[in-house]
Amino acid sequence: MATSMTSELSSQPVTTGLAMEVENLSFRYGSDQRGRAWTLERVSFGVRTGEVLGIVGPNGSGKSSLLKLLAGLLQPRCGDIRLGGQSIGRLDPRAIARSVAVVPQDSAQVFPFTVAETVLMGRFPHRRAAWWSMGIGDETEQDLVCAQRAMAETDVMSLADRLMSDLSGGERQRVVIARALAQEPAMLLLDEPMAFLDINHQIELCTLISRLKAERQLTVVLVSHDLNVASQVCDRMLMLKDGQLCRMGPPEDTITPDVLRMIYGCEVVVDAHPQTGRPRVTMPVGPVRK
Amino acid sequence: MANGQATPTPLSAASSPAAPSIGAAASSDMRGQWQRTGALLTSRRWGLILSGLLIASLGMVTLCSRFGAASVPLGDMFQALMHALTTGEWDQASIGTSGVILLQVRLPRVLMGFLVGGSLAAVGVTLQALLRNPLADPYVLGVSSGAALGAAVTMLLGIGTTMALLPVLPLCGFAGGLLTLVVIYRLAQSQGRLPIHSLVLAGVILNAILTALIMFITSIMEPNRSAGLMAWLMGSLIAPGYPALAVLAGYAVFVLAIVMQKAQMLNVLTLGEETARSLGIDTERVKKQLFVLTALLTGAVVSVSGMIGFVGMVVPHAVRLVIGSDHRLLLPASVLVGGMFLVVADTIARTLFAPAEMPVGIVTALIGGPFFLYLLLWRKDRML
Question: Does A38 lie at the interface with B, CB-CB under 8 angstroms?
Answer without folding.
Answer: no
